[in-house]
Inverse folding.
């Protein structure tokens, strides 16, 4: 046979075993979102390029998957244009749609488009795939799921507190031990201000964001390259490495930031947030970390990030407050805050640490062996009864060799096999085989459902 | 404000209310698939164009959404090529991936690619969106969901029977009254053979497929245009309009088709299938309909279609047996049979006929009003208790006007509102307001969870 068909690089199939595990993650996240009163929405895979372009920086624009216009897409484009136009401009002549790059920009578009039908504060969640033409590598895919939860149209720090609580709740249900770190963009702005580099806040944020991976020396080198004065870099050092409890840090920052209005506002926000967390005993699992920056431009207040304690894989959940996301679509002054769970990384963590629960409740519980036409009717009527009782069950569709049928049950991990041959039928009985222990029991056919229900837990 | 952002034509957003209804359909279909022992898989939105092209006919190729190659996609394409190349060929130079058009071809690719890991018969289901660059019109979208269930690697008619049973089970759970029609491609082949037009089976299938909408005269005209002899068309008429029960038709066909091996094979298959259905009392809801053709080329045996009885909208579920689907990817001789539920049309039917169940169990059950900082802590501790008990609940995040907070509860359809002001707090009580009746009751805070659980059903 010739080389078989394949998949585009960076994309994956999910088989039944992976689906069960992935669904466990999605269902857990979804049930917590619902418990906290968030409502689901879905947006289309394709958005107009005018919605997507310019929202993710130059790099993001390049990583968008663009969809070729239908029909005679190249008509009207002369050879001169092709020769004299760069790929970016040329693509916009033959493509007007792209695949969504994240769920945040489509959400902002959604809010603006449907603002008259929405009751604010709008608490929404959205679990859908996104696509990025990134260079595929281990753990980085071109199609992956995001699980976003946002509340838009309310300024209260209660929302930030509740999102931290959702993170804590999700990961404790998934048995993933995590470290939640919190910071505030206004504090970073204030620090930039007091070290005399207010205008370079973007560069400072980007550099600090790399502290974890690159170390302080590389960060300082980058800051110098970006043009920060030696004095500014020096005065930044003690601030980044403030020690002590959150309260200790707040007291020290109160002095450091006293001349910055933005800084003092950020400090007050963090104090309110930590008071919520203290009252909830959540503060112990949260860390106030001045070096947390998170790259995205649009954050304006609290920023939040969670990492797995028992595996190094980077952030598995993160987000923050953005004061003007819908402004890009003409709706000004609507503040929101949200976080996004990275399902693919969470999957990798749970897989590596073997945190998935047993799967005995998933999939087919019972397989009826097929002994041929004469026996078939007897099995089918029992099969129908099991299904009416809500028990997932199958009849092997063809009378293949019994060895083959048993191998199927084994490969599929089906816990019970039912043997109903001529002898059993004559006696109104059946043989129930426990595939784990190998035990076979002859039972009356009326006993079947009760027996299976009793044994549901113990298997 | 300028005209706000929009969506690509033929695509849609789904808001919270639609999501709840759509999920009801998906969850019902999914739970029936599982009950019958089918396992979930998912494939990526993007496939290589080499996987997709040529599988759906010329029309299908045109309707594929193609994805522009990343980077400098036009490099190496000279102006001469652009001027001298049609859009089809040109697009294949700048695009090597496309969005999936259905779930069947990706499934065939999946089976071939993963055949060494699969236990056959492979019973899989797949619920994902597909994309087609069709002209958007009422009820026809460019992004829509398919819900496919197939079993591959087994020839037994038991599989066809079970799929009919799944259709019956799904629609009875959804309360959608349906008409299930069955036919067999081998019978149509046999008929073409006995009227002396064996080679024109494709044209005959396509023409008959339109009988419902276009009427017999137009069908006959089309057949004549395609070159069928008058004699052949005349001898076709009585066959298409055979009357009586399935058994009556079988007896008549036995004579008509006696010289066609294919026809007799098809007849035998239909008899076996109807025997299964008879034993199950499903035959009464199924009709043997010789005029059912279903357009797709790859069917080779049974064909199945379901329509809503109470609304004209075309097929809401359909499928059939295909003997060589994986052959296109180099794996020969693997027979399969499957059906696909059209979730968007089912949604339209259920919406129009008002078949969705009450939604009281969905979404937030309880809203705590926000009276300001002093009262907040009391409410948050009650809120945490409710969530621990699994009751979806919210605290209004800001102390806005009470009228505004009540309007939010109303718009969201939240059934219970909790009022805990200074008086209630002092007495360790709270006021529970039933939003439907307007009744307010002062209760002890410890009674809250039990009261809500008791009232869960009655609301």
């Amino acid at each position: 046979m010739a080389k078989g068909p394949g998949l585009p690089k960076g994309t994956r199939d999910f088989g039944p075993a992976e689906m069960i595990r992935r669904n466990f993650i999605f269902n857990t996240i979804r049930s917590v979102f619902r418990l906290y009163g968030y409502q689901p929405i879905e947006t289309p895979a394709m958005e107009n390029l005018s919605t997507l372009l310019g929202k993710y920086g130059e790099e993001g624009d390049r990583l968008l998957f663009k969809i070729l216009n239908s029909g005679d897409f190249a008509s009207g484009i002369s050879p001169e244009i092709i020769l004299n136009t760069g790929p970016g401009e040329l693509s916009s002549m033959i493509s007007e749609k792209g695949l969504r790059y994240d769920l945040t920009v489509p959400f902002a578009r959604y809010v603006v488009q449907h603002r008259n039908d929405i009751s604010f504060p709008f608490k929404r969640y959205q679990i859908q795939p996104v696509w990025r033409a990134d260079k595929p590598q281990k753990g980085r895919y071109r199609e992956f799921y995001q699980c976003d939860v946002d509340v838009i149209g309310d300024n209260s720090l209660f929302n930030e507190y509740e999102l931290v609580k959702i993170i804590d709740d999700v990961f404790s249900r998934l048995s993933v031990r995590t470290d939640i770190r919190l910071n505030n963009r206004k504090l970073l702005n204030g620090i930039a201000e007091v070290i005399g580099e207010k205008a370079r806040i973007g560069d400072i944020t980007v550099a600090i964001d790399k502290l974890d991976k690159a170390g302080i020396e590389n960060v300082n080198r980058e800051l110098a390259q970006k043009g920060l004065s030696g004095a500014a870099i020096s005065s930044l050092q003690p601030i980044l490495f403030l020690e002590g409890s959150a309260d200790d840090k707040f007291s020290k920052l109160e002095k450091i930031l006293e001349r910055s209005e933005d800084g003092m506002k950020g400090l007050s926000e963090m104090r309110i947030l930590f008071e919520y967390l203290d009252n909830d005993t959540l503060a112990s699992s949260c860390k106030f970390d001045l070096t947390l920056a998170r790259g995205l431009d649009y954050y304006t207040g609290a920023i939040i990030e969670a990492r797995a304690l028992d595996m190094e894989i980077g952030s598995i959940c993160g987000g923050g407050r953005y004061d003007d996301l819908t402004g890009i679509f003409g709706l000004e002054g609507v503040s929101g805050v949200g976080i996004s769970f990275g399902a693919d990384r969470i999957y990798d963590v749970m897989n590596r640490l073997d945190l998935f629960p047993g799967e005995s409740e998933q999939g087919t519980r019972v397989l009826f062996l097929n002994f041929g036409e004469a026996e078939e009717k007897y099995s089918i009527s029992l099969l129908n009864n099991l299904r009416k009782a809500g028990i997932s069950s199958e009849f092997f569709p063809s009378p293949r060799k019994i060895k083959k049928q048993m191998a199927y049950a084994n490969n599929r991990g089906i816990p019970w096999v039912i043997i109903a041959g001529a002898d059993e039928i004559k006696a109104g009985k059946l043989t129930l085989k426990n595939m784990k222990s190998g035990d076979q029991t002859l039972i009356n056919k009326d006993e079947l459902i009760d027996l299976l229900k009793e044994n549901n837990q113990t298997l």
In short: Chain A has a mean pLDDT of 92. The first strand of chain A starts at residue 39 and ends at 40. The CA atoms of residues 57 and 297 of chain A lie 9 Å apart.
